[in-house]
Amino acid sequence: MKKFISCLITIIVILCVSFSCKQPKSLQELLQEERKAIDRFIAMNDLVILKEYPKSGVFSEKEYYKTNEGLFFQVVDSGNGTRVKPLADVSVRFDYCQLIKSVVKGDTTFLYPPNPYDPYSFVYGIPQTYSGYSSQISQAWVIPLSYVGEFAVLNMIVPSSIGSSNDNLNVTPVFYRNLRYTRFN
C-alpha cells in the first residue's frame, strides 16, 4: 500500500510540475501565429491580394489591397467623393467584427457587433484619438481615408499592430464587415 501511495504522489508531482512549467509564448511566436492566421483566413476565403491600389478604385468581390502598414482592405463603395480634411471629426460604424484566429480554428459563431447607439469617432490628423486604453477605435480605420470619401464602405483585415489597443495587447487580428465612414465634420 505504501508503494502505491508513493507512486501516486510521484505521478501527481510530475503532472503538477509539467503543467506549471508551460512557458507563455513569446511575442515573436504570437506574431508568427497572427501572420499564419491572416494567411489562412485569406486562403479560406479565396481572396486575391493586390499589391497596387486599382486605378479605377473598383474592387472585385474577392480583391483586397494590402497597404505598407499591413492593412488589407476592400472597397465596397467609395463614398460620395468628399475627402476628409485635417481635424475633421470622423464617425465610423460597422456591421460586425470577427477575431481571425477564432475563424481559422473553425469558430465562426462569434460576431462582435458594434455599439448600436453611437458610432465610433476620432479626429483625423490627431493620432491620440485613434486609440487609447481599452479603446475600440482602430488605427487601421484611418489608413483608407486617403483612398475613399465620406459614406465609403469597406471590408478590412486588421493585424494587431494597427488594431485597437485591446487587439494590439492580445496580438489579435480582426476582420471588419461593412465598415462605414458615416460623417466628416
Keywords, please?
185 residues, alpha+beta, Chitinase A, domain 3, eight-stranded mixed β-sheet, 8 strands
Which range best describes the helical content: under 10%, 10-25%, 25-40%, 40-55%, 55-70% or over 70%? 25-40%
Distance from N terminus to C terminus (CA atoms, Å) equals 80 Å
The main pleated sheet reads as: 8 strands, mixed
Q: Output the CATH topology.
A: Chitinase A, domain 3
Oligomer: single chain
Number of helices: 4
User: H/E order of the elements?
Assistant: HHEEEEEHEEHE
Number of domains: 1
Overview in brief:
With 185 residues, this protein is of the alpha+beta class. The chain has helices spanning 2-20, 27-44, 100-104, 165-170; strands at 48-50, 63-66, 72-77, 89-93, 96-99, 120-123, 153-158, 174-184.
Break the fold down into its secondary structure elements and pairings.
Blueprint: H1 2-20, H2 27-44, E1 48-50, E2 63-66, E3 72-77, E4 89-93, E5 96-99, H3 100-104, E6 120-123, E7 153-158, H4 165-170, E8 174-184
Parallel strand pairs: 1-2
Antiparallel strand pairs: 2-3, 3-7, 4-6, 4-8, 5-8, 7-8
Report on this model:
The protein is of the alpha+beta class and 185 residues long. The protein has a single domain, classed as Chitinase A, domain 3. Helix content is 26%, strand content 23%. The protein contains 4 helices and 8 strands; from the N terminus they run H-H-E-E-E-E-E-H-E-E-H-E. It has helices spanning 2-20, 27-44, 100-104, 165-170, and strands at residues 48-50, 63-66, 72-77, 89-93, 96-99, 120-123, 153-158, 174-184. The longest helix has 19 residues, at 2-20. It starts with a helix and ends with a strand.
